[in-house]
Amino acid sequence: MDKHIFWISSYPKSGNTLVRAMISALFFSKDGEFQLDQLKHSSQFEKRSRLNILKNINNEDFLNLDKLKILSKYWLILQDKKYMGVEKGFGFMKSHSCFVSLFNNWFTNSHNTAGYIYIVRDPRDIVISWSNHANLSYDESINFMIDFRSCIEWAQTKSLLPDNIKPQTFVSSWDEHVLSWTNNRLEVPKLILKYEDLVYKKDESLKLMMSFFEKNFNFKFDFADQKIANILETTSFNKLKSHEEKNGFAEATSGAFFRKGIKNQWKHELNVKQIKKIENKFRDFMNKFGYY
Asked: Over the stretch 167-195, which tens digit does the pLDDT of each residue have?
């Protein structure tokens, strides 16, 4: 079995990029110094350029990839090792997709997947971050998060696909997304992290990641103490924000991508009605992860 993909997965605006930065500095630098270009080692699965190979496989389907019934037929084909650029071991891949079966097509499987990290965040804070990222009102952001059918567009990268064809990532509602990645049939090593721990207990979270890879994949990290110190410094929120201000950030869509990076923003931003709507919908999973 190939098992050539290691997923870094999360609901949008939950800390995926921060984990990618930490992983990139850990695996793809000698000293733990993070640079933005290292994120290429954990690129997004859902980018339009990845779909080019389908034009020669089935041109009719290629021109109908804005339909999930068509696109889902090719999820596993797109993950084939020959298309992923992984020569040995596994490569890191970012995704915001829900781990689901649509039209009898699973998003991924144990043949392709070596393991994954899933990041969960307080949905009340996601509302605010998603609102700013997607240029939505708070009420629109809440409605997006509670809708089982919610989707987002694949990342805009150079592609043979006509501009009017807009492939969709099936995100689903926040609770369905969390359930799909934290309780599923994938028999692979998995690590569940909380965004709040990544920000406020970063040292512990980084050491937990290192231990996870050592235990499950027999990695050995040289000069670990120095690497840890440099990773903590160069992936701090202020450092990442500074990187974006100086060099820009391709994943930003509306305003700054690295905006505040703190918890409990919702206490000062959301009204009582909005808070209750979120908590009433997501109470069980908020309880499970200590958010309620």
From this structure: 999 999 999 999 999 999 899 999 999 99
Nearest to 231, CA basis, from 41, 92, 33, 39: 33
Distances (CA, A) of 39 to 16, 18, 34, 91, 285: 11, 10, 9, 12, 30
Please list the alpha-helical segments (H only) found in the chain: 16-28, 54-57, 59-62, 68-71, 75-78, 81-84, 123-134, 138-146, 174-182, 195-200, 202-217, 224-234, 237-247, 266-269, 272-288
Contact 213, 224 (CB under 8 A): no
As assigned by CATH, the class of the 5-288 domain is alpha beta
The amino acid at 206: L
Q: How far apart are CA 166 and CA 48, in angstroms?
A: 9
Q: How far is CA 202 from CA 34, 174, 225, in A?
A: 15, 24, 14
What does pTM read for this prediction? 0.91
